[in-house]
């Protein structure tokens, strides 16, 4: 077989479907984020403002985080030097897990190398090892959960996104004594809508199910201490397993689960994706712990972030640019055409110094292609003005529809 010819063929198919992924070469500058340097294919440099980062609060450049990382690097060196079982559990890992358990009001926490791995490993292990377990999975759950469930080979039931009636209907068809896990997210990344966590917990209690909640887009962002939407809603104690990332609002990298001491010890003891991989560097653990600690005490970043989101929504409304009116910090600006979506994104980058990755099928359904904008406390009024002016210009160029409210 000519392997490279095979690879080329598959990639051409992707290109033809408009699904080929181009990565922007960006260099973030500490202290100046969301501003960065973009290098194009020819190596030409130009300044850009990033408007689609998941470093939602700018914690990736927070002085407390950087100091903690520098200190740990100087104190303990670069890598952890082993799996958690074989010399890779450093004191920084222990402290971070304590910080995470406290954040979610749980008995214990377990760290993984990423949020993806934590979902894949934890959900996969629980569903595989609990005898005869069935997972009830929200239709829009993240790929990492889907892969974990698949890997478990457990029975799977997909319920309509955020639809309590559909979830109930499925629960009613299952045997009363069959072990169940309800897996869902709090803030959904692409539409920015939020799950009815309390009502899902009601159903879980009624039908004897465990609840597994992915708070990846919510940790650091919601609740008085950044514990997520479950904290904001006062229901953290009702969710059995809360999963999160250290790579988005906390600005570093890594993933985790929290829950009862027994559940965490079980996953620690049986999850291949936890056991057989080198632990995160101690400096990463120290930086994440500093970030969490800061956001437990400080709501300033969250407040400022919310104000920026409201401001951008208001400015988009003024010029009639359509966006999904959701209750979260994610602003999906709807283009509804894959070619125009990519065109606008390219023009923003190359002519306006604005970087927003286009989001096309298969990440979102066809016809709902969008620009997913995530304003942060580090975006200035000038940054926003530049963005809105550029969008207005491109909306006109692409002859895209405006919302009626622009008329007045
Ligand atoms: C990003 C993401 C993850 C994975 O987290 P990483 O730390 O980036 O691996 C898991 N779940 C959801 C919903 C996500 O958006």
From TrEMBL:
GO MF term set: 5-aminolevulinate synthase activity; pyridoxal phosphate binding
GO biological process, alphabetically ordered: protoporphyrinogen IX biosynthetic process
Keyword Acyltransferase on entry: yes
Keyword field: Acyltransferase, Heme biosynthesis, Pyridoxal phosphate, Transferase
UniProt cross-references to CDD domains, sorted A to Z: KBL_like
Catalytic activity: succinyl-CoA + glycine + H(+) = 5-aminolevulinate + CO2 + CoA
Domain Aminotransferase class I/classII large intervals: 48-391
Pathway: Porphyrin-containing compound metabolism; protoporphyrin-IX biosynthesis; 5-aminolevulinate from glycine: step 1/1
Entry EC no(s): 2.3.1.37
Family: Belongs to the class-II pyridoxal-phosphate-dependent aminotransferase family.
Subunit structure as annotated in this protein's UniProt entry: Homodimer.
Alphabetical list of PANTHER family matching this protein: 2-AMINO-3-KETOBUTYRATE COENZYME A LIGASE, MITOCHONDRIAL, CLASS II AMINOTRANSFERASE/8-AMINO-7-OXONONANOATE SYNTHASE
Name under which the protein is recorded: 5-aminolevulinate synthase
